[in-house]
Structures are given as structure tokens and as C-alpha cells.
Amino acid sequence: MSTETKEKSNSDPSAKKLIKRRIFILAVIIDIIALICIACIFIIRPIKSRNEQKRLSENSTRYAVIYQNGREMMRIDLDNARDNSFVITGNKGASNTITIKDHDIYFSDASCPHKLCVKQGSASKSHIPVICLPNKLMIIIENTTEGGEYDAIAY
What does the alpha-carbon distance between residue 88 and residue 99 come to, in Å, rounded to a whole number? Predict the structure, then answer.
């Protein structure tokens, strides 16, 4: 008789529905927890990093450093620079026009064949340089902080 009662309980449709309902509720709870974790990663962390960048930028000065053939040619304070353009000539008559506009710096014209340096856009972030390989020019943004020698990347 014990086998008959087991068969009856296994075939009971209300018990199967109850198990399915519990599995569904558990899956919904796991999905909600996963969505909360994703929200923390993609929404809350960027807000904190933006606030940190604002705090760091209040105490820092941005410099554009222009290198030619690996040597520093000039250093420009972008926070205090006026909008203007100037030409840098290099080896064999190569030239690049560098433009400062709205506290950003970029190559506006170049004598190189493909003009990839012009297509790169402005050098607005410190970890992404703008480079003209044929003319051996490079623009790098450096941030200096008043409170110390560390920047946001070293933080």
C-alpha cells in the first residue's frame, strides 16, 4: 500500500502546481536580485565616479603637451587658453595646424596623406593621446592637482 500512496501523491495535480508556483516565485526573486545588482553596477557607480571627477577637476589644471620626434615642444594651459590656431612645421616641410577651441585641442589640418590625426578629434581625456604618425607629432593631456601629485587614474 505504501507504493500506491506514493503514486497518488506523485500524480496529484495540485502538488505539481504548487511546486511549479514555488519554482516560478524563486526565479522571479533571482531575477529581481540580478536586476538590482546590474543597476548598482551601471547606474550608481557612474554617478559616484562623475562626482569624484568633478571634485578632482575643481582642484586640477589641464595642460596640453605637444611632442615632436619624442621631445616636448610646448605646454599649453587649456583651462586658461584662448581659442586660436597655430601651425607646427616638421621634417621635409610637413605641417600640422593645431586648434584650441572651448578648452579642447585638436589637429584641424595636416599635410599627411590620410589625415587620420584630424579624424581622431580632440584630445580631451588624459589617457588618450592624439597622434600624427607621419609628421611625428603627439598631443597628450596632463592633469595636475593642487593637493598632490596624484591624478584620478592613480587614485
Answer: 11
pTM of the model as a whole: 0.56
Sheet (strand 104-110) strand order: 84-89, 95-101, 104-110
What ranges do the domains of the chain cover? 2-57, 61-145
Helix (H) or strand (E) holding 11: none
Residue 75 near residue 61 (C-beta atoms within 8 A): no
Q: Which amino acid is at 9?
A: S
For the chain, percent helix, then strand, then coil, each to nearest 5? 40, 30, 30
Tens of pLDDT, residue by residue over 84-114, are 999 998 777 889 999 998 888 999 999 988 8
The label of the residue with cell 599649453 reads 76
Which stretches does DSSP call E strand in 14-136?
60-68, 71-77, 84-89, 95-101, 104-110, 130-132
What is the C-alpha separation between 113 and 75, in angstroms, rounded? 27
Task: Using CB atoms within 10 Å of the CB of residue 137, give its burial: 0 to 12 exposed, 13 to 18 middle, 19+ buried.
Answer: buried
Q: What is the third-level CATH fold of 61-145?
A: mini-chromosome maintenance (MCM) complex, domain 2 (2.60.320)
Give the angle subtended at the CA of 138 by the CAs of 135 and 142, to the nearest 5°: 170
